[in-house]
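Long-time lurker. I teach an intro course on protein structure, and each term I like to show students one example going from raw sequence to a predicted 3D structure in token notation. This year I'd like something fresh instead of my usual example. Would anyone be willing to generate the tokens for the chain below so I can use it in lecture? Attribution to the forum is fine with me.
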Amino acid sequence: MKKSGFSFVEILLAASLSAMVIAPLAYVMRQSRAQTQASFNEIRASFFAVEVIDQIRTMKDFIGFDQMKYISSHQEEAPYYNLDTQNTSHLYINPKNNDVNTCSGSRLFLSPLPFAGKENIFKRLLKIYPANQGNKDSYQPHPDNLIAEVRIEWKSFGATTYNRQLKLVTQLSRNELSPNSLQ
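-- Reply from a regular --
Happy to contribute to a lecture. Here you go:
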């Protein structure tokens, strides 16, 4: 009598060969997903940085170059201003009474950041300081040029701390237009 079907050894051999093929494919798929997410977050971080720089340039044109100096730290080593944890997104401080100027030109209107659960994945940091007209060993602030430095930090997939960052630096220069000349 002839038996039809597969023996236990044949089934075991087929299962082990399938596992040897499927396991590396699953690993490659998981790595591909993680890499895609990392690339996507890097693109998002660059958009967030450009958005902050555009807002700072608009603010400079609206409130004037001279008022921008009041939000500068006067040194390159100063700490960053965290744009996402401040109670207000106004950056211009009135030098006469140290109050926040509520004119709309001093306010940053930024896109909301994506959340992972209850926590931000991204963090936007900003500092504005006078450009150096000296050499790298002697800091001499330039009266007509400011540096705006935006740093975006984010958490990679599965990380508990901000372990990735992107920095965008631009120069703000005094120009011929002032807010009063537009009226």
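Some talking points for your students: The radius of gyration is 27 Å. The beta strands are 81-82, 115-116, 119-120, 122-132, 141-154, 164-173.
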